[in-house]
């Protein structure tokens, strides 16, 4: 795609976060799961937020969640160039079916249509040679039933 906008800033990938970005590059949604208590953790961290155990295993997570809260951004901060093409941005806190809460963009949804309690599903967008980013979109079945 060509436009006159600067490229979007890329995530600062670390050894701690690389598996998350690399999996999304391949279209897979993974989170760290505690092998002791089973809690899924997000953001990536060296120990479990529930019980403190380490290390955590990168594990395929269910790609569905429920919108906990949302906001719509109609402008881009000066230090975040490149996002103008996506305006307005629908940004949500999403309670994943596997238990973690994630901040993410919801696409394929008009700002007036986003709702607390809306069921959403993950899709991954390719953003660089080594990373993809999970985003969400309204669940196509429009079901409120948990899968
Ligand atoms: Zn744990």
Automatic annotation (TrEMBL):
Transmembrane segments: none annotated. Residues 21-55 form the ChsH2 rubredoxin-like zinc ribbon domain. Residues 58-123 form the ChsH2 C-terminal OB-fold domain. PANTHER family: BLR3430 PROTEIN. This is Zn-ribbon domain-containing OB-fold protein. It comes from Caballeronia choica.
């Amino acid at each position: 795609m060509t436009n006159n906008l600067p490229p979007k800033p890329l995530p600062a990938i670390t050894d701690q976060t690389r598996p998350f970005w690399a999996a999304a590059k391949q279209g897979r949604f993974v989170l760290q799961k505690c092998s002791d208590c089973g809690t899924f953790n997000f953001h990536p961290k060296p120990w479990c937020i529930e019980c403190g155990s380490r290390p955590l295993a990168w594990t395929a997570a269910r790609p569905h969640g429920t919108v906990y809260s949302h906001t719509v951004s109609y402008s881009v901060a000066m230090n975040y160039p490149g996002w103008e093409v996506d305006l307005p941005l629908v940004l949500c806190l999403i309670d994943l079916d596997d238990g973690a809460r994630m901040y993410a963009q919801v696409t394929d949804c008009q700002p007036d249509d986003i709702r607390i309690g809306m069921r959403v599903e993950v899709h991954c967008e390719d953003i660089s040679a080594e990373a993809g980013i999970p985003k969400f979109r309204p669940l196509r079945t429009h079901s409120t039933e948990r899968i």
